[in-house]
Amino acid sequence: MSAGIATIFGVGYLRPAPGTWGSLFALILAILLLEAFGIIGFVFALLFASVFGWWATSEYLKQTTTKDPSEVVIDELIGLWIAVLPVAWALFHYTLSSLDLWPGWISSFFFFRIFDIYKPSLIGWADKKNGTLGVMLDDIFAGIAAAICTIILAVFYHGIY
Predict the structure, then answer these.
(1) DSSP helix/strand/coil, 120
(2) Angle CA 44–13–103, to nearest 5
(3) Phi, psi for 70 (deg, rounded to 5)
(4) What pTM did the predictor assign?
(5) What are the domain boundaries of the chain?
(6) Mean pLDDT in each 10-residue stretch from start to end of the chain (161 residues)?
């Protein structure tokens, strides 16, 4: 069960670039969750995924000697969902359809992948931590950085204050 959650039921085994596949799956799932359950349901799903993702990653790491196995992509799901929180909030606040904010979805995904791959500053520091903390925290920080960049881009592009 923990392996299924940690790899998002096998998505993490897709090659090449399992982190990108995991992030793309997370993006599609985020859109579906928001359409079906709104922002409150999405936030609960994020909290649920964070708790069970932490547990599953911890259990998975006990079975391997790899510090951050590439097939573990639940951390990408959590990070990407954090990155899209501003888009989710805008959908709720302005009562829009998910497709109305397609540039926000793309920028959240793009910024998250850039931060997750290159790991600047605090993200790189978190990545060097051992165990579940290191696996999860860098993606959480990458998600926060991507969310901030998405907000900045929206403010400059749309003049949202």
Answers:
(1) coil
(2) 50
(3) -65, -25
(4) 0.94
(5) 2-158
(6) 93 96 98 95 98 97 90 97 96 86 94 97 94 96 98 81 47
